[in-house]
Design a protein that fits this description.
Elements: H1 3-18, H2 29-42, E1 47-51, E2 57-63, E3 71-77, E4 96-98, E5 101-103, H3 111-126, E6 135-140, H4 151-157, E7 165-169, E8 174-178, E9 181-186, H5 216-229, H6 238-250, E10 256-260, E11 263-267, H7 271-281, H8 290-300, H9 308-311
Parallel strand pairs: 3-6, 3-7
Antiparallel strand pairs: 1-2, 2-6, 4-5, 8-9, 10-11
């Protein structure tokens, strides 16, 4: 496979896609779906576009596998949020390529993902790669305003588009490498959602020319101030807690050696004792920064000397031996 061609194609596709204004509201996703359909048609890949409402287009294309395994849905949303051109230094719908970066509304959220998926689909079709799974390319409307005309509509009205699918890849999954860290793969299992509130303040009525501190507007403003200033407790989802524990276990070194002053000592920590320390000093399972190691070393050589083989475990790759 010609990966240079695939990469160049993805860049060109993204720049062209960014030039299609699909700001939501109103969406106008049909224009985006039309662009996608033309690209797919040029590669000999059939697609289907259906509007959930006037101008709210959704598109699906399928590359058939042999059916031995369940399909994979490659999903992105066509719409983008509003871009106020007064605060942009470039045209948000110009698809500018400069200094190795592509600029435009949707370059991150999430037309780039869609074009990487599309470029992969085109390359697989072009090279006639044999597939065990169907690949379903799905582009939907209205993600930025609730998905009523997009993903939700597809789930309700076009479930056949997803027939036979076992997995779906969509927004915000990533594999990060570099920066001195072990490659890290992330997935999204939940997102913050809005909490609409209606506050009503009551007090004695009066004339605006003679306000007093306890009027209803004053009480409402003070309540809003307390609401904004309130500390929210942290809430860790069970899934996040589970994967964090998994990181800690997988990061455990086989052997740790630390030298303090003129004394030397070696230890092979147990998984149960070391996991909590590593979870604190190296939670991402990558190489810690020197400042992190310094803090861990200082902690090890102060009030918890008896636990120093564990406390300094996360610094073993970046800074051994540690001296005080």
């Amino acid at each position: 496979m010609d990966w240079q061609r695939v990469g160049d194609e993805a860049v060109t596709l993204l720049r062209d896609y960014l030039r299609v204004n699909t700001t939501n509201p109103p969406g106008n996703e049909t224009a985006g779906a039309r662009f996608l359909a033309e690209v797919l048609d040029g590669a000999g890949i059939a697609s289907e576009t259906v509007e959930s409402a006037p101008g709210r287009g959704n598109l699906m294309a399928r590359l058939r596998g042999d059916g031995s395994l369940g399909g994979i849905v490659l999903h992105h949303h066509i719409d983008v949020v509003y871009a106020d051109e007064r605060y942009w230094t470039v045209d948000p719908f110009g698809g500018l390529l400069r200094g190795g970066y592509i600029y435009g509304r949707g370059a991150l959220d999430m037309k780039s993902t869609g074009m990487v998926q599309l470029a992969a689909l085109l390359a697989i079709a072009r090279d006639r790669v044999p597939l065990r799974r169907d690949l379903v390319f799905l582009a939907t409307a209205d993600e930025e305003a609730g998905s009523r005309f997009g993903a939700q509509w597809v789930a309700d009205e076009r479930r056949d588009w997803l027939a036979g699918a076992e997995y779906a890849l969509s927004e915000l999954g990533a594999v990060e490498a570099g920066h001195g860290r072990t490659p890290f793969g992330s997935i999204v299992i939940s997102e913050k959602t809005g909490l609409p509130l209606r506050l009503t303040a009551r007090s004695e009525p009066g004339h605006g020319s003679m306000p007093w501190p306890d009027t209803a507007p004053h009480r409402l403003v003070r309540a809003l101030g307390r609401l904004l200033a309130a500390e929210r407790p942290e809430h860790v989802l069970p899934e996040v807690r589970s994967i964090s524990h998994g990181w800690a276990r997988s990061c455990l070194p086989q052997r740790v050696r630390v030298t303090i002053g003129s004394r030397s000592r070696s230890a092979t920590p147990t998984s149960g004792r070391a996991s909590s320390a590593i979870g604190i000093t190296r939670p991402s399972c990558g190489q810690p920064s020197p400042s992190t190691c310094s803090r861990a070393a200082r902690s090890a050589t102060s009030s918890r000397l008896r636990r120093w083989p564990i406390s300094t475990a996360a610094c073993s790759r970046a800074r051994t031996p540690t001296r005080s």
